Structures are given as C-alpha cells and as structure tokens.
UniProtKB/TrEMBL annotation:
It comes from Leptospira idonii. This is ornithine aminotransferase. The gene is rocD. Its cofactor is pyridoxal 5'-phosphate. The lineage of its organism: Bacteria, Pseudomonadati, Spirochaetota, Spirochaetia, Leptospirales. CDD domains: OAT_like (cd00610). The keyword Transferase applies. Gene3D superfamilies: Aspartate Aminotransferase, domain 1, Type I PLP-dependent aspartate aminotransferase-like (Major domain).
Length: 397
C-alpha cells in the first residue's frame, strides 16, 4: 500500500497547483462520520469538509436522490424552467422564513451575489450616489477566495500578489458594535459578518454584539448580511447561528451543507425588498438552480430536520466542549465554540498535533497556526465523541 500512496502523492504533486497543504492521507471511502484510506485504515472525520458534510458522508437518502435525479434531468440552465427549483424555494422558505432566493454554486459565489444585491439596494433604495456604495466587513473575516472577496480580507497570505483589488469595502474589528456605528456613512449599503469567525479560529462575538449590530443597521438604514456558509444549517445548534443571538438579518448566505457533500450549491436568502430588485440580465449562472443540485439541496435540508440534527448539534456540542475542557494538558489554552463548531487553541503548532491525531485514527485540521477545529458531521454519536476526546487526551496529555 506504500507504493499506492506514493503513486497518488506523486500524481498530485506533479500536476496539481500547490495551493493546499493537506495532511498526507489518501482517502477512498466514507460513511457517516468515518472515512477509510487506501490501505483500509479507518478514521473519524472531525472536519466534515469545513462543515459541508453536516449530514455525514454518503448519506443513503442523498445517494438515492442523486441516482434518481441523474436518470431524469440534471441541467436546463435558467433559460427554461424546471420542477425542482420551485420545490427547493418552498423548502428554503419553510426552513428560513425568508421569501425570496437566488441560487448559485459555491459559497464565494453566494457572497459575491449578496454584495451585488446590497449595492443595487443601496443605489435604488437608499439613493447612494452612483459607484459610491460601501460595504463594511470585519477584520479576520473569511468569505471566500475570489478577487473581490480577498479585496476585503485582512489575511495578507490571501492577498499577496493578487492585486489590484476591488474598492468599496471598509474593515472594522469583529465584535465591536461601536466601531460599526462610527464607520457608517451615508454611502454605507451593508454590513457583512460571520456570526462566528470559524476560519479565523472559531471566535465568538460578545453575547449582545449581533443584537447591537441589528439595531444599528436598522437605525442607519444599512443592510445586515449574515454569512452562514459555515455556521448555518444546524452546525451551531440552530438552523442558523444568528438565531442563537435572537436577530434577523436582511440577507443570508448559505452553501456547504446545503449540498450534503454531493454537489456544489449555494444560495442567498432574502425578501422582495432586496432580491426583488434583481431583473433579467442582472445576474446569472449556467449551473445555478439546476434540477440536479436543487433535488439534492432539498433532500439535504429534509435530513437536517427529519434526523433532528439541530438538537443533536446543540446537545453534543455542549457535551464535547465539556470533555475537551477537562483534558489535563498544559498545551490547551482555550476551548471555545457553539454547537459542533469547536476551536481548541494550543500553545504549540496545531499541525504537529493534527499529524499525531491522524496516526491515532482522527482527522482534524489546523487553522491559524495554533487552533484545531473540531467540526464533525452532525450525525456523530456520543460514543464517537468519547472516542475523539480520548484520542485528544492521549495525544495532548
């Protein structure tokens, strides 16, 4: 099997652009929370593809949906109508309470779409002078990798040698409502924020922060946009993370788990006041809203509700955090999170620990040098969490 590993490693190294630094494990099978490498070794997946696999690997009902829809109709483009898109609209309405939706493919596309919608709203509703609309974002944000999105990133490695950058953004500290209030001008169209900064290291805002954000946005006539691509769809113990804080954004971006891990699909959720401003020709995507992706997304949302994954995430997240905090290790500085979005901050390089966890049958990923994310599929059981914490205890103790 060493020869097989070397073969795949050489192929990837020879032909793949080196924009990732993955752990050296070659996976070929997944089921639920478990994955297997090419030698047959079994691992507990504690990343869930950055929360795209909330429903677990290869969920049986999603498999069935994929197979059935693939035999019927996969792509029409939006030049024609199909039966699956309106069915997904109805499901999204019941799930979110919003009443208008725009479907795309990747999370970054959803964010780009929300930016366009916010700018158009700023010009047509707030009467911002042409080409002056500004959007406020937070330091240490992560909203994607496109040129426009990295234009308002504060992470230099995301921006190096990719300029010139898109203007029209202002960066303020995360969790500081006063900074938001002071930064708003008559040209501010929207405030875009992650309810929890996952990629930055699982940082939660002060408890009253989003409530203050909502209040400020209403007072100042500014759209409140919540990026729920990683934090939404049950990950933090509610349908959306912002519900944990009791607020209602004007626009919501979702992706990742909307696909159930099978096919890229994302969406912007809003109302007629915002998305109703779009018109034929103003935006589009060949694959956005295709029947194949819509059938999968509808089933992915149904699984979250039918299998009670939201409640499980909340309860098992609290259970997991309590166990992580009890690990007697001098290397653990802090355990923080919400639901099954958990960050374990260390005083040593996290990648080294991830390599040791991998040897013990646990797949985790480091972020920002010293933080390990624990974000397993929401179908994980209490016993599997016990196993995971036991491995952490062995490696860090």
């Amino acid at each position: 099997m060493t020869e097989n590993f070397s073969y795949f490693l050489e192929l990837e190294s020879s032909f793949g652009a080196p924009n990732y630094n993955p752990l050296d494990v070659v996976l070929e099978k997944g089921e639920g929370v478990w994955v297997w490498d090419i030698s047959g070794k079994k691992y507990l997946d504690c990343l869930a593809s950055y929360s795209a696999l909330n429903q677990g690997h290869c969920h049986p009902s999603l498999q069935e949906t994929v197979q059935n829809q693939a035999k019927i109709l996969t792509l029409t483009s939006r030049a024609f109508r199909n039966t699956k898109l309106p069915e997904l609209y109805e499901t999204l309405h019941r799930f979110s309470g919003k009443n208008m939706f725009l479907l795309m493919n990747s999370g970054a596309e959803a964010v780009e779409t929300a930016i366009k919608v916010a700018r158009r709203w700023g010009y047509r509703r707030k009467k911002i002078p042409e080409n002056k609309a500004e959007i406020i974002v937070c330091r240490n944000n992560f909203h994607g990798r496109t040129t426009t999105v990295i234009s308002f990133s504060s992470e230099e490695s995301y921006r190096a040698d990719f300029g010139p950058f898109t203007p029209g953004f202002k960066i303020i500290p995360f969790g500081d409502a006063n900074a938001l209030r002071e930064s708003i001008t008559n040209e501010t169209a929207a405030f875009l924020v992650e309810p929890i900064q996952a990629e930055a290291g699982v940082y939660l805002p002060p408890p009253s922060y989003l409530h203050e954000v909502e209040k400020i946005c209403r007072e100042k006539q500014v759209l409140f946009i919540a990026d729920e691509i990683q934090t939404g769809l049950g990950r933090t113990g509610e349908k959306f993370c912002f519900e944990r804080y009791g607020v209602k954004p004007d626009l919501i971006t979702v992706g990742k788990a909307l696909s159930g891990g099978y096919y890229p699909i994302s969406a912007v959720l809003g109302d007629r006041e915002t998305l109703g401003l779009m018109e034929p020709g103003s935006h589009g995507s060949t694959f956005g809203g295709n029947p194949f992706g819509c059938a999968i997304a509808k089933q992915a949302l149904d699984i979250i509700l039918k299998e009670d994954l939201i409640r499980k995430s909340k309860e098992l997240g609290e259970y997991a955090m309590s166990l992580f905090r009890e690990i007697p290790s001098k290397h653990i500085k802090e355990v923080r999170g919400m639901g099954l979005l958990i960050g374990i901050e260390l005083d040593i390089p996290a990648r080294e620990v991830c390599l040791k966890l991998m040897e013990e049958g646990l797949l985790c990923k480091d972020t920002h040098e010293n933080v390990i994310r624990f974000t397993p599929p929401l179908v994980i059981t209490k016993e599997e969490i016990d196993f995971a914490v036991g491995v952490f205890r062995k490696v860090l103790g």
